[in-house]
Design brief:
heterodimer; A: about 110 residues; mainly beta; four-stranded antiparallel sheet; globular; B: about 120 residues; seven-stranded mixed sheet
Chain lengths: ~110, ~120
């Protein structure tokens, strides 16, 4: 079945450092791919998404490119801030926005 | 602000009792809502799809008599954990898709602890 694998955390960075959180997926068809973020005490929020190969999703300085050849959707940001500290979930859906399949989540901690 | 709420945010109960968790969409109607369960350091696992006006659809391995779902209105779905046991202790999260913006909105979650 479909699955999502993302790197384990926590990821600890200093402010203004570069961020990459790896995410790879397994799917039978051509899924849509998502990154969700969960800030402390809040519900998951959609950060960005891509619906087909080579699409790049971007939001709040974060980017991720849908790479069909490597079945990956890595999350990147050039300069993180303390306010980016949160848990990040990679997810896929064969029938967007229905039935999301999530990775285990990666906690990001950014220190000043 | 939050567009999907859950109540309660945290509940502790004794083994054998039943616990009801509410999920509300605050400013849109949702004919479908989803219930997830999250164990520590693990993925969110989809438990069931709640359908307004019809029976819920459960994922493989989820006991429908254990986890009762009622989609009472276009803005409310409830999950009742019946005869709860310690192994039911978990973080339960609901979500509601807003089709006009092609996005799912998640509630903040409910932490259930069964003693």
């Amino acid at each position: 079945g479909d699955s999502v694998t993302q790197m384990e955390g926590p990821v600890t960075l200093s402010e203004e450092a570069c961020l990459t959180i790896n995410c790879t997926y397994t799917a039978t068809g051509y899924p849509s791919l998502f990154w969700y973020v969960q800030y402390p005490g809040e519900g998951l929020q959609l950060l960005l998404k891509a619906t087909k190969a080579d699409d790049k999703g971007s939001n709040k300085g974060f980017e991720a490119t849908y790479r069909k050849e490597t079945t990956s959707f890595h999350l990147e940001k050039g300069s993180v801030q303390v306010s980016d500290s949160a848990v990040y979930f990679c997810a896929l859906s064969e029938i967007a926005p229905d039935k999301l399949i999530f990775g285990t989540g990666t906690r990001l901690q950014v220190f000043p | 602000g939050a567009v999907v709420s859950q109540h309660p945010s945290r509940v502790i109960c004794k083994s054998g009792t039943s616990v009801k968790i509410e999920c509300r969409s605050l400013d849109f109607q949702a004919t479908t809502m989803f219930w997830y369960r999250q164990f520590p350091k693990q993925s969110l696992m989809l438990m069931a799809t709640s359908n307004e006006g019809s029976k819920a659809t459960y994922e493989q391995g989820v006991e429908k008599d254990k986890f009762l779902i009622n989609h009472a209105s276009l803005t409310l779905s409830t999950l009742t954990v019946t005869s709860a046991h310690p192994e039911d202790s978990s973080f339960y999260i609901c979500s509601a898709p807003r089709t006009e913006v092609d996005t799912q909105y998640f509630g903040p979650g409910t932490r259930l602890t069964v003693l």
